[in-house]
Amino acid sequence: MSAASLRGRLRWLILGVIALVLLPLGIYSFRRTLNEVGELSDGRLAQSARTIQALMENIGLPALRGHSAVVVVPIVARSTQKLVLHGHTYESEVGFQVFDRDGHALLATGNLQQLPPPLPQHVGYEDLRLGDYRWRLFTLPPTPDGLVVRAAERYDSRSDITQALWLEHALPPLIALPVLALLVGWAVRRGLKPLDALAARLAARKPGTHDALVLDHAPRELEPVLAALNDQFNQLEDALERERRFSADVAHELRTPLASTMINLENAEASRDTHEADVALAGARESLAALARRVEQLLSLARLETSSRAGQRTDIDLLAVARTVIEELSPLIADSNVELDVELPPGQLRVRGHEVALAALLRNLLENALRHVPDGGLVQLSIQQGQDHALVDVIDNGEGIPPERRAAVFARFHREAGSRGEGYGLGLSIVQRAAQLHDASVELLDSPHGQGLRVRVGIPLLRNTNG
């Protein structure tokens, strides 16, 4: 089943709303008009009866006194005298009767000559059938002289008016609706032209471009759509650029330890000297260890991105995360010949974020500090509660980083000279990304020991946090 087009939906919805509004109004107007026509016809019938009554009282009654037979007023004297107007013989559709106080007919039209005199309770309007026609009668109360006048009109005369009203009310909508459907379809197509223009711009947009999507004379309703699309395009292009750069950097960084491993293994296979083979295998082992370390840090970066997309942030105890990281790094700390001084407040220090990212942030801060201090050096980890932030300080007494080079160390695979062991240039990049995921700040400051570096991270606290 194919999906309905937006144009078709709008067209039928508009026509449906128009019909929903106009149809009840038309029916109501038609019924009101019929009532008004009926009242007007009844009023005309009563007026005719009163006119005849006035004529009889002033002119006809004196002339009729002494007549014993009813005077019959012919509706049509001869066929050549029929009054035909627009196909109707209106004379045959109306009539009247005049009776004395004894119920004797004094005057009557030929079409009502056989109608018996009215009963006293029949004063006013009534309906009856006479021959092939239904009649509407109006009888006036008797005059002081006992004169009773009755006027009548055939219902088919009124039905002609009703049919004309049906045509007047029904024919215009029947003609107008198809025309209206065409006009509404044209209006909908013209109104949706900005969407067609937007679709054309999207189809013509080249992958990888950072140009903003612009639509000339865009309606106000499309402005938030364009803004959202441009924002999504920018985020997507930035993500793709990061992935391309990351893939290239990974390929470059993994090539060296892999090549070193292969060379050492080939030397070990080619060497006949046991000592030389052992040295080559030891070199291959060190290259594989370097490769494993680089892969681990690359996986840390991947886990950071995964945790940021996993869902909402959760309520985390930062101190518990710090204790877990210290316990995890205890073998490395023991082998590094470096003193680690830890200062954690009692209780809990709750923040909102991703536990994997916070653990990666603390782990890389400590590992980075351990690599940049000499044997017998000092690394301090301090976590304190500030007014609105949890303040994480990692301080070392190594060589430090000059202020003019501090901004560059956050780039991926950037290495500072003088570090202990092999650095891979990913530590502070991981720290910066984890901080971004928590709306945290990262500062590189001078160490209070006179030399070295202080890294301070400010992580927003939860409200009503216990110290």
Q: How do the helices and strands line up, and which of them pair or pack?
A:
Layout: H1 6-64, E1 71-73, E2 84-85, E3 88-89, E4 94-99, E5 105-109, E6 124-130, E7 133-139, E8 148-154, H2 155-191, H3 193-204, H4 223-270, H5 274-309, E9 314-317, H6 318-328, H7 330-335, E10 339-343, E11 350-353, H8 355-371, E12 378-385, E13 389-396, H9 427-437, E14 441-446, E15 453-460
Structural features, described:
With 467 residues, this protein is an alpha+beta fold. It contains nine helices and 15 strands. It has three domains: 6-176, Beta-Lactamase; 207-311; 312-467, 2-Layer Sandwich (Heat Shock Protein 90), CATH 3.30.565.10. 51% of the residues lie in helices and 18% in strands. The strands form four sheets. The protein has a six-stranded mixed beta sheet with strand order 1-5-4-8-7-6. Strands 10-12-13-15-14 form a five-stranded mixed beta sheet, with helices on one face. Strands 2-3 form a two-stranded antiparallel sheet. The chain starts with 5 loop residues before the first helix and ends in a 7-residue tail after the last strand.
